[in-house]
Amino acid sequence: MKNSFYAVVICIVFMGMISGGCSDKKPEEAIDSLSSDTISVDSLAGDSIDSLIANSPMPKAADALFDDFFFNFAANNKLQLERIVFPLHVKKDGKVTEIKKESWRMDRFFMHQGYYSLIFDNLKQLDIVKDTTVKSAIVEKIHLDKKTVEQFKFRKIRGAWMLVEIEDVALSKSKNSSFLAFYDRFSRDAAFQVKSLHEPVKMTVPDPDDDFKMMTGDIYPEQWVDYKPQILPKGQIYNINYGQTYTNKTQKVFVIRGIANGLETQLTFKKMGGAWKLTQFIN
After folding, report:
1. Which residues have CB under 8 Å from 221's CB, separation 6+?
2. DSSP annotation of 94
3. Can the peptide bond before residue 206 be classed as cis, meaning omega within 30 degrees of 0?
4. I want to staple 12 with a disulfide (CB 3.0 to 4.6 A). Which of 56, 64, 86, 92 is the partner?
5. Which of 66, 98, 95, 97 is nearest to 83 (CA)?
6. Are strands 136-143 and 148-157 parallel, antiparallel or unpaired?
7. Cα 239 to Cα 19, 174, 214, 236, distances in angstroms
8. What is the DSSP letter of 107?
9. What are the tens digits of pLDDT across the range 96-142?
């Protein structure tokens, strides 16, 4: 969503200033024609960005990619109400209840924290985020502390993304349950983090001497405190399933992405001898 976010915000800011707005262009064309040099998105405070989106119509092109749509959905109360199929079915413990439009309370999801997380089986699966042919997606609000997962299920209906159902499931029923149980402790316990590091861990980070280059090397447990990611979400985390399948029970890639600050961290974990180990991270 990081790159998509820049395009969406820039598109909204300049809609009406540029002939034809953003709706007549493909997402890639919109990004090319409105470069990040035009406006410093990072300079906008979070509340200002939310206000900007909330008071601006969503560009038609934002429905092409789920991420572009979802950012608007989470920030714009009017749009959120328009993009929910009411009465909304909620499944829990084998029972189905309904939420009527007048009873819905806006959900800002991860907007307040400025970042979100994703789970994949491998790095190649990250490409699905940019796939415009995706027709369904699930936003998972994972309550590690409560051992439950709220699944917000979206479908593209006549070209528009719609929230069609919410389902509450036990964390133990998730295909990522083993990893999530491990990550819950990993995120909270500094000593356990060190214990869960492969020796060595492959690390790729920006070159301090060249902003346009990355440097790769190895780090060992005693160096973890100096190189570990700035953010390790805990308690409640998010995942977006764009259709990626979870069939690998011995490897997970945990991605942390900022909404407007350029943050991106990729942590690769592998299960070795029955225990999960961090083997690589890209920061």
Report:
1. 194, 195, 197, 199
2. T
3. no
4. 56
5. 66
6. antiparallel
7. 37, 12, 27, 10
8. -
9. 999 999 999 999 999 999 999 999 999 999 999 999 999 999 999 99
Which backbone phi and psi does 21 adopt, to 5 degrees? 60, -150
User: Going along the chain, which residue ranges are E strands?
Assistant: 84-92, 95-99, 115-120, 136-143, 148-157, 160-170, 197-207, 210-219, 236-241, 251-258, 264-272, 275-282
* Token pair listed for 260: 């407007």
Cβ pair 205, 227 in contact under 8 A: yes
| Selection from 1, 8, 95 nearest residue 56 by Cα | 8
For residue 197, count other CB atoms closer than 10 A to its CB.
Answer: 19
Q: Model confidence over 235-265: pLDDT tens digits?
A: 999 999 999 999 999 999 999 999 978 889 9
User: Rounded to an integer, what distance in angstroms lies between the CA atom of residue 150 and that of residue 142?
Assistant: 6
CB 90 within 8 A of CB 168: yes
Would the pLDDT of 52 be above 70? no
Token digits of residue 138: 């699930």
